[in-house]
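Exam revision sheet. Question 4 asks you to relate a sequence to its structure. Input first:
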Amino acid sequence: MADIRPFCMPKWGIEMTEGTVAEWMVKEGEAFSRGQVICLIETDKITNEVEAEFDAVLKRVLVPASDQPQPVGALLGVFTDATATEAEVDAFVASFKPAETAVAAKAGAEAASAAAAPAPASAAAPEPKKIVTNRPISPEALKLAEANGVDIEPIQGSGRGGRITYQDVVQAMRPEHALNPVGPAELPAENRAVFASPLAARLAAQYGIDLSTLKGTGPRGRISKADVLGAVKPAVPEAAPAPAFGAPFVAVANTPTIQPFDKVRKVVARRLTEAKQTIPHFYLRVSARVDELVALRKTANVVMGTKASINDYLVKAVAMALVRHPDVNVQVAADAVHSFPHADVAIAVASPKGLVTPIVRQADRMHIAQIAATTRALIDKAQAGRLSFEDMDGGTFSVSNLGMFGIEEFDAIINPPQGAILAVGGINRVATETADGDIAFESQIRLSLSVDHRAIDGAAGAAFLQTLKALIEAPESLFS
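Answer key, structure tokens:
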């Protein structure tokens, strides 16, 4: 009997209800190996690579790559061994019934596959072993670990508060990837008549470029990486020359370049449109002096040996203010307001895949150096496209800073289900009146608070901003 297994839309996180097959990395009818990436699945927040957990053949693709979302548990494809026939696959698809949840679908599929697949003669099924532990672990993860005899002690939980998830146990069951080095690159014999950097020489060999044909722009005419890459990239067409003075103006075709929204941009557009249409926004604005904060940051970075940014100090100040004003540290549900004892502050980051909002968990309990390290790690992951669901799930408040781009002031759209977002502008020198009537200059930063009026009143938002302003203007309090 052929070994036939379903491949269903997985579930990552409690809020996930659907996903989109962005790309199939294995073609229909092609065999794949354990650990190989089968496809890319996009959710509202992340793109995940789905790796094969066993060797098989992608016998049939039922949901091709598209922009159409599929519900969790939907049948996306069918995996078989080499002996399966089309008739057997047709019968399997016709009789398939998706489970109610992705975890159940996965567990049920594995159980059905285990029952259908012949057991190897040399390997016996592991005996279920009862696990007694005080560590936080999901029920399905514990069941899977017991059924497969997995030791959960060395597993580092990726869930909230270090909770071990079903995916953590699955990862622990996978063998370590074996490296298969291909050996050193074959380079042409060194030409001493050509003055080029080692990296430029390797790139030239990779792209088949003759270094003697290039003119180096480096010191003393040295050929650099940029020179080689410049020879690889297609030449940019030159702009049409401007007409000579006095010559009659002749219009040319102003043809636009059309770039459709990618999947991430579509999701961002949909979520922001819904937020703006369904959330009654109102805005509160204030300016705060930052001369002392700038000076303190410079000294503290030297003393602590960190590279904390102004934004890191603002995240700390926001977190402390939120704890003092729990009526602003909220999430808004359909008919309820959820208040939190600690501040999970989301920071807006522009990534190659669009705007993302990774979260600094319990920022109110962190030291400035810890916040700096956490935000740096999250920004690096965002730039590399490696943010996980846990990195962006939830949050009680958001901070969006465009000051580094020279923006003086702006209003941000609330990131649901959060109740508010702070827009941070740049630092400017402003003339102010001193206590004795003279004119002096001070550095000020503009802050704009966007508030969900369904849950937060104007007075509550104003009180939060006053506390935040006081913390910024007396930055020593951020170390208390």
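Marking note for examiners. The first strand starts at residue 4 and ends at 8.
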